[in-house]
Amino acid sequence: MGIKADRVPFFALVLEQMITRIAGINVRTLYSSPKIYANASIMAHEFFNVDAIALPTCVPSPIEGLAFAEANNKPDVIKWFDYAPIFIKQGEICKTEEDIEKLEIPDHNKIKLWKTTFEASKIIIDKLKFPQATGAGIWSVVQQLRGAQAYKDIKENPELLSLLCEKIYQSNLDIYRCWTENVGPVPIIFYLGYAFNKTIMSFQDAMKFEGQYIKRLQKELKTPIILHNCGMKPYFKEVCAEIDFLAINGSNPADINYWIDFKKQFPKVTIMGANIDVSRELFTGDPAEVEEKVKENILNLAPGGRYMVSPICELPFNVPLPNVLAIPQAIEKYGHYPIKQS
Amino acid sequence: MQNAGILNSLVKSIVEGDKEQTLDSISRALQSGLSIKEILEDGIVKGAEEVGGLYEKSEIYLPELLLAGTAMTAAVDSLKTHLRESTDKYSKGIILIGTPEGDIHSIGKDIIGTLLRAQGYDVIDLGTDVLPSVFVEKAKEIKPQVIGLSGLMTITLTKMQEIIILLREANIDSKIILGGGIITEKFCTMAGADDYATDGWDGIKKIKKLIELKTQEGT
């Protein structure tokens, strides 16, 4: 932070799908030891020439569902895949009102995969001298624990839903505590703000069941926050008018003009992404199309800084590798400061 | 006039997601002599269309959509108990849905299933993380007019392609629709699907159109 880059940085979510593909191992092996986890992650990030490295399990998405499953003695809901993230069967952990009332908040120092994550993060810091961040998120975990019923709860039982959100918030704080103890100071929080989607709920409800917890985190932890939202119709402008974020990380809407306007409206918020989506040019296109998309983003959003090229969401295993490699190549071609508008 | 009032009341209670009021309206509608078909088409389906319209305009969201779905499901279940044995088949079409192997997201698929059943369609839901062979075997068995493949992750797109290939190799001529925010028109064409939808309500409209198309084709 505060350092001027000589070119536009490249940020990508290189998670289980790509790490296992590049390192030639499956997910069980990846998570079997901190050393394997750290080294495989470094290998995959270096392969793609990404400027930042973060472990897949540093943010409370599937791993937090796993933590709640283990803390509440429900290991059967955890689903392992060979080359994809762990998933939790949605809605099984908090099926009933009683499940929510009795829900135990995990001690992340006792969850094996979190312990592996802490140790792997320390290895990365030692090797690369690159700080490691952790994450937070409420609705991403609500969906795992409560499933579709959570959406009905918004209208039918908001107090119960608020109780669940509060427990997840306390779990987020525990992650932060354990991270600080085991890894070191948290430089940035990567927040999964999935409630902020126009296809899911009103902005008012999103502030109630996600936004207020972000504000509390900011007040309590005083750590800068990046808002991640890979949804189709995110409330980026609306939420940035309410909450100060260091950066936003998303790929929709696809119209570049939205992002040009966003940058004018919120000049202090770094855009990580704009409209580069892994299911569009990266998946169905070719390297030339990817280059054009990256060029469009750089020419329109990079001047003045506070922009990073970032395909969203995680790089899936079935994205052609030449398409991903076209991104750092395009940055090399068009992304050196000062940006040439030609 | 009275009948029109009862049907309007049914529509309103569905739009408001009020299950109790919906059941009360169904009861009054039956007592007033309205036919099952009239109650379904001019009450429940009309309610569903109003709900869909509000969702498309972002005047309501998933919570309201789900509650309306609950009210509609209760209405249809209540109507079913009044169907005579000889006419207990009131199906506007058969739809097979599921989330392919490797993906366990289900919310969008579940919403579509609920709302379609509530409008008189037979929906067979294979669940999540479904093997391609299971789609094929079930399609051979029930001969659906439409097969819907739902997914939230780009990794699922490859499985969707595989399933379509296997379905066509098995000479299954159902219309195929792909669902999920990750689906693009380009991918839909590449994969050989008949249509795609990026949200639940769009999916429902397109599934209905595909069924009409199948009916016109006479298959």
Structural overview:
- The complex is a heterodimer of chains A (342) and B (219).
- By secondary structure, chain A is of the alpha/beta class.
- Helix content of chain A is 49%, strand content 8%.
- Chain A is built from 15 helices and eight strands.
- Chain A has helices at residues 16-23, 27-30, 34-47, 62-71, 97-101, 112-128, 139-146, 149-156, 158-182, 203-221, 236-242, 256-265, 281-284, 287-301, 321-334; strands spanning 78-79, 87-88, 134-136, 189-192, 225-228, 247-250, 270-273, 307-309.
- A six-stranded parallel beta sheet of chain A has the order 3-4-5-6-7-8.
- In chain A, a hairpin with a 7-residue loop joins strand 1 (78-79) and strand 2.
- Chain B has nine helices and five strands.
- Chain B has a five-stranded parallel beta sheet, with helices on both faces.
- The termini of chain B are far apart.
- State the shape of chain B: elongated
- Cα radius of gyration of chain A in angstroms: 19 Å
Q: What gap, in angstroms, lies between the N and C termini of chain B?
A: 40 Å
Count the domains of chain B. Answer: 2
Looking at how many chains there are and whether they match, the oligomeric state comes to heterodimer
Number of helices of chain A: 15
